[in-house]
C-alpha cells in the first residue's frame, strides 16, 4: 500500500476539500485526486461523498481514518527516532501551551534551556486543552503543557498546581484575609477566560457545586484583556496563579469553595507511543525543576494589621464611589 495515498486521504479528511489538502501537501489537485481514486480502487471502498464543493467521509471512510492516522503517527515516530539517533542534541522541539504559560513561564525559561541546547530550535504553539489533545494525537507537537489528562494514550510529568485567583481594582475591598468564597464572588461582574482554559472549567464546576449563577460580563482568550478591564474597575477577573500580573495595579485574592482553594493540576504530557528526543526529555525535566522554584507567580495582595482588625493595604472601597464596581443584589 502506498503511504502517500494514506497521507493524502488523511489530509483530505481533515480539511474537507481537495484544494486545501493540495496546498498542505504541496502537490497539484489532479495528482491528489488520482491518489484518492487509486486508494479507493485498491481498497474497494468509497471513502468520500461530495457535498456541495466539499468532501464528507463515508461511514467506511470514518472507520479507516483512525487506522490511517495511527499508521502516520507510527511512521513519523520512526523518522523522528532515526533523526534523534543521527543528530543527538540537535533538532526541533515543538511545544503547545496556553498563552499565559508561554508569557509567564516559557519566555523566561527558554534562554536557560538554549544555553544547554543551543542547536535545538524550540517552536511554541498557542493552544488550549482540547486543541493540544488533537495536536498530540496527530504528532504535530512533542509536548503539551495543560491540565493533566488521564488515559493510557499520554505520559505525564506533573507540575506544581495553579490556584484560581480573583483580580480587581485596588479600590475594591474584595474578600477577607486574602480569600473570597465563590458564593460571594458570583454576584460581582466577572471577567472570565474562554471555556477552553482549564481554570475556567474548574471555576464553572465550582459554581455548579455551590449552586450559584456567575454574573459574567466578558469572556476572552486573552488574559491581559481581563486584567486591563479589572484594573480600571470594569469587573473582577478570574485568572490562574500561573499568570503574571505585575504590569497592573490590582488587588488579588484566592478563590475558594467550602474554605478550600480552587486548584488545577498542571502537567507536561506527550504521546507515549512516540519516543521523545533526548533534548525533549531534558526540556521536561529542567522545566519541571524551574516551575517548582517560581510558582506561584502571582500571590494574593499582602495585608496589614491596623486599628485592631485586618485591612487590605490598598485604600478601602466605598460603595457609592463613582465608576467602581459592586456586587449585584
UniProtKB/TrEMBL annotation:
Q: Which superkingdom heads the taxonomic lineage of this protein's source?
A: Bacteria
The record's section on InterPro entries has: HTH-type_LysR_regulators (IPR050950), LysR_HTH_N (IPR000847), LysR_subst-bd (IPR005119), WH-like_DNA-bd_sf (IPR036388), WH_DNA-bd_sf (IPR036390)
Molecular function via GO: DNA binding; DNA-binding transcription factor activity
Any idea which UniProt keywords this protein has? DNA-binding, Transcription, Transcription regulation
Q: Where is the HTH lysR-type domain?
A: 1-58
Q: Name one GO cellular component term.
A: cytosol
> What is this protein's function per UniProt?
NodD regulates the expression of the nodABCFE genes which encode other nodulation proteins. NodD is also a negative regulator of its own expression. Binds flavonoids as inducers.
Q: Which family does it belong to?
A: Belongs to the LysR transcriptional regulatory family.
The name this protein goes by in its record: LysR family transcriptional regulator
In its UniProt entry, the species of origin is given as Bradyrhizobium australiense
